[in-house]
Amino acid sequence: MHVDALKKELRDRRWRMTPQREQILKVFIETNSEHLGAEEVYRYLLNKRINVSKATVYRTVDLLVELGFLRRLQFDEGVYRYELVDKQNKHSHFICNSCGKIYELKNELSPEFVMKEYIDLLNGNGYIVEEFDIKFRGICPKCSEKQLKKHRKSK
Ligand SMILES: [Zn+2]
Ligand SMILES: [Zn+2]
């Protein structure tokens, strides 16, 4: 999504794109929608000498979640991370317990397809599912290969 497209969407929804909201969305575009925490967004802006208070950043990311531009993710207890909502590009996440890297699973099975039965079941039981996340934790391919090599050497 481009800044122009974002601006248009904000206009369409009668929300003014304030410079601050725009700056913060730009951070996500420039970093290719890395899974940034509010603290990291704040530091990024600081590095670029953009003057914005920490409180504003925290408030604005949450506002952008409410407005549907960012998705809030929680990989670790007590830490929220955010990424651009890209409707064309739904993906699940895999978090490596060894190196901490967050992988986006984009080319695997579509989560909608995999979860269809579960969602149908919930809907049938009176729950209205509006969204869901799939989060995997484990050892990533790079780390498992490293572990394997270490293991071979020690033999
Ligand atoms: Zn790893
Ligand atoms: Zn992601």
Automatic annotation (TrEMBL):
Binds 1 zinc ion per subunit. The keyword Repressor applies. GO terms for molecular function: DNA-binding transcription factor activity; transcription cis-regulatory region binding; zinc ion binding. Zn(2+) binds at residues 96, 99, 140, 143. CDD domains: Fur_like (cd07153). Pfam families: FUR. Keywords: DNA-binding, Metal-binding, Repressor, Transcription, Transcription regulation, Zinc. InterPro entries: FUR (IPR002481), Fur_C (IPR043135), WH-like_DNA-bd_sf (IPR036388), WH_DNA-bd_sf (IPR036390). SUPFAM superfamilies: Winged helix' DNA-binding domain. Belongs to the Fur family. This is Ferric uptake regulator, Fur family. It comes from Fervidobacterium nodosum (strain ATCC 35602 / DSM 5306 / Rt17-B1).
